[in-house]
Design goal:
The chain is about 45% helix and about 10% strand. The chain contains 18 helices and 13 strands. The chain has a four-stranded antiparallel β-sheet, with no helix packed on it. The protein has a three-stranded antiparallel β-sheet with strand order 3-2-8. A two-stranded antiparallel ribbon has the order 1-13. It comes from Komagataeibacter nataicola.
Length: about 550
Amino acid sequence: MGVGDFIRRVASPLVPKTGSGRRILNALTSPFGTPYDAADMYGQRMQGWQPYLGSADTELSPYRDRIVSRVRDLVRNDGWAAGAVTRTLDNAIGVKLRPISKPDYRALARLSGNTAFDAVWAAEYAKAVDAHWRNWADDPLRYNDTERMLTFGQQMHLAFRHLIVDGDALALLPWMEDRVGLGTAQYATTVQIIDPDRLSNPQQTFDLKNLRNGVEIDPASGAPIAYWIRKAHQADWYSAADTVVWDRYERETKWGRPNVVHMFEHHRGAQHRGGAGILTPVLQRLKMLIKYDGTELDAAIINATFAAYIESPFDPAMTAEGLEGGDEQLAYYQDQRIAFHQHRNISLAGSRMPILFPGEKINTVSAARPASNFRDFERAVLNNVASGAGLSPMQVSNDWSDVNYSSARGSLLEAWKTMKRRRDDFSIGFPTLIRLAWLEESMDEDDLPLPRGAPPFIQARAAYARAIWLGPGRGWIDPVAEKQGAVLGMDAGLSTLETECAENEGADWEETLDQRAIEVQAFKARNLPTPEWAGQNLASKTDRKPEAE
């Protein structure tokens, strides 16, 4: 008898048969012939679990406002939630998110047949474009902002905050030509960050085939073609008339210039709105932790406020009975107690001495805790929050007391992958489209270095607008060891100065080299000896720790 025959003979009594005698495979725990435990409907563990199965829009759209309002309440009033949002913002975006132009000169050369599109031209073009961009994005008078309050970097910080809290980032790109003039705006392109709450169906109608929570879509392709935005937030009492008026904004112009920029994380196909921020999966646990924290705090306050009390030898029922029945002896005893304590303020070295009337005794109040392992419970919940938000547990709790270098670095590297992915995803879906609109105007207005026969912008916008986005650097846990590793990686050809500057410092490598040249020249101009970092020593010396010298 073969192995297969043996297994079939041993297993046959455990596998039920159908009416035709054909056997049905059972799952591990399901007793009713279900091949997967996950599909069990009648077992003790799974019978009450019947979640709703809907499309991407029908699952989220009806509940979007409720979810967002709860998440915002937590972020406003709970330190853990606010800290998780702040850490994500600081590590992924900061307030200095900026592009470094990397035009695709190879694509332009192939498209135009012009060999003048080479690496030298790309470097010259990139420097010119980035200089004009800084004039617009970092304008001290804030003409880049429709509302003239924020720089571009601050606007991206706000938009990303909306994305991780509300689930959507939304902006309009008004063309404000009347602002352009001497001493005022240099460009007509402006950015207006919109509260995602304002993106909704006109008059709060139900979702339709071509309208999903304010997003008008092409029924044939499912592509968003327009957005319906309230003139004012529905709870803005100061603009009551505008709260019932919606404006329709087309997604882009006929030639492809963006009018509206809408960004959210796509979790499913055919999804047209966000609404589930990074705290949505852990919302319930955070709420429970708040209640637990409050209970612990109340217990501590009770212990601190009501430390002790004096107990009479008569319980309340006996005392009430005696007083109502006219028991003169009990009444006399109570009067004597009151008189006794009115004149007993004896103290020793400034501390009052507890002198009791005969029959009395002192008791203390001890508020019982909900559980003795509060710290462990809190840590477990915060670990859950950190995992759901894509952060390290230390970043959420700010408690670094129980970690060493290896565990901290490993945890932060994992968190950095998520941060980097979120920054790149946001950069592709939001600021890149804004820069596309600005660059179209810059190509028309500014004297950019372009060879003869260069294709028009609308024909090669992807090649002209190609760029990388710099945000905050990863930073260092052990600056000596990690910088030594960076130098070794560059010497071995496994990394570049551009990568190391961007990843670790959030800096532009060319600006770093330019500044270094200025500083070295300043030493020489003052007849000062140049330091080691000026490059006078071999780079191979940096692979030794300072104590090895």
